[in-house]
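Structure tokens please, single chain.
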Amino acid sequence: MMVTFKEAELSPEKDLKTILDKLQYADSAQVQRQLVDQTLQVKIRMGQIKRKLVVMSGKGGVGKSMTTTNLALAFSRLKHRVGVLDVDLNGPCIPKMLGMKGRFEITPDGAVPPVGPNGIKVASMDFFLKGETSSVQWKGPMELSPVWLGLMEMNVIREFIADVIWTDVDYLLADLPPGAAADKPPVIAGFIPELDGAIVVATPSEVAMTVVKKSIGYARDVGIPIIGLVENMSGAFCPKCDEAVPFFDGGCEALCEELKVPLLGKVPFDAQLAKACDHGMPLSDDHRITKYFDDIAKKIQDFLESKKNLAVESLRRNK
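Here you go.
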């Protein structure tokens, strides 16, 4: 049978062991019934959320989780209720960047996620691990390890979405794993009904843009609309003149023009931002970097609102 968060509150090691043990199905008919029930639960949970976004990049090291964290804070400053789903099961870092520790509160109705700065709710595998040196160890038949790993991860992601109580969240941001985790975009697209779209993070490096270009094409192929691209580490602030000095030749403008993707913003590297993420102490509302994320969040908000208004107007005309 399948395990759900609401069954018991266990120790971090036993949480994973219980999930994995119970996923060794003994009754296929019961499993099928539970999958149907869980799919319905996903629709109910997600139906309570107004906007559902994924943050992705085909290239690791571009600052995707940092962007997710700071966009979540920016949306909260816009007076939205925000949730973050940390889909990077093997390298979860959203709680650290937000300075969060804790565990899910298990209730008869589901798992209540820990709450961080500005009331941001976070679901992350990090809350199941003992400490910074603990890792997620997936056990199963070694000759089937790639299949086993994919199966386990998909079920954990489904349970995060189905069992976590996201009530009254305006914006849910799903932070996808970096690099070659090609199965996650279609999995998330299938698990999250009415996904509003993806925010793609890149750096102006030629190598990064080449990989990100492929990931944008892939996301579109599996039916994920691209809301826009964030150019991260576009430069660094000069300590003498306080102006942003470029790191690379050129930027992501040509890539965005070629793929017809809006450029949502260019965020310079800032040592204080890196320190804030490392120490889990979000920047102040008036920090020079904060306004970059506020502007990006406002563009996303306005785009989604205009899209909604167009849909409402179209329905009205067709009546």
